[in-house]
Write a structure and sequence with these properties.
By secondary structure, the chain is mainly α.
């Protein structure tokens, strides 16, 4: 999912050009993906779906390494 988000951001910024994202842009996209998962985990917990919340929290741990 992170790779797809990074690719989408690159296309959004550069179109068909073969440009790379800066480190700051990669960090920003990664932060947005972490926030999405945190929000999802909260909603899953409220909906009494701890299994899905756990999955989101595990993904957060992985993303935070980047």
């Amino acid at each position: 999912m992170l790779l797809a988000a990074l690719k989408n951001k690159r296309i959004e910024l550069f179109g068909a050009k073969d440009e790379n994202l800066t480190d700051e842009q990669v960090i920003a996209v990664t932060g947005m993906e972490i926030k999405k998962r945190k929000d999802s985990a909260v909603i899953y917990k409220q909906g009494n779906r701890p299994d899905l919340a756990d999955r989101e929290e595990k993904e957060i741990v992985i993303l935070e390494k980047y």
